[in-house]
Write a structure and sequence with these properties.
Helix content: 25-40%
Largest sheet: 5 strands, mixed
Mean pLDDT: 94
Order of helices and strands: EEEEHHEHH
Strand order of the largest sheet: 1-2-5-3-4
CATH topology: Ribosomal Protein S5, domain 2
Radius of gyration: 18 Å
Structural class: alpha+beta
Length: 133
């Protein structure tokens, strides 16, 4: 069982989630994201499910109090960053979770980033409309 707080960082695109896992205080563990409840911060059920996938996969839902500080990126990238951070905390806490989390791909940081815009183009690769005359 967990005696003290464990801290890890999860990332996705430009979103950074600092995750703190603590022993639960009440009957059921709570999840707080930026001082708000998970349901309040991530209003869409799909995003709530993404953020909770690591805990659900390892059957630890409600076992611990999870506190998350997340910043940067969009709401979808933030949810995935939270999932990555929680997976890293669970891995640090108990190495028996590692094969399950690794197989699901939750321990790997998604390296895909937005490609930079190039000069003379409308976007990263999009060109302006060609005019023959």
């Amino acid at each position: 069982m967990l005696e003290k707080e464990i801290h890890q960082v999860g990332k996705r695109k430009t979103a950074v989630a600092r995750v703190y896992l603590r022993p639960r205080k009440g009957e059921v563990g709570s999840i707080q994201v930026n001082g708000r409840s998970l349901e309040d911060y991530f209003p869409r059920p799909a995003l709530q499910k993404i953020a909770m996938q690591s805990l659900d996969l390892t059957n630890n839902n409600g076992q611990y109090d999870v506190f998350v500080n997340v910043s940067g990126g969009g709401i979808s990238a933030q949810a995935t960053a939270v999932r990555h951070g929680i997976a890293k905390v669970l891995n640090a806490m108990d190495l028996t979770f590692r094969p399950v989390l690794k197989k699901a791909g939750f321990l790997t940081r998604d390296a895909r980033e937005v490609e930079r815009k190039k000069y003379g183009l409308a976007g990263a690769r999009r060109r302006f409309q060609f005019s023959k005359r």
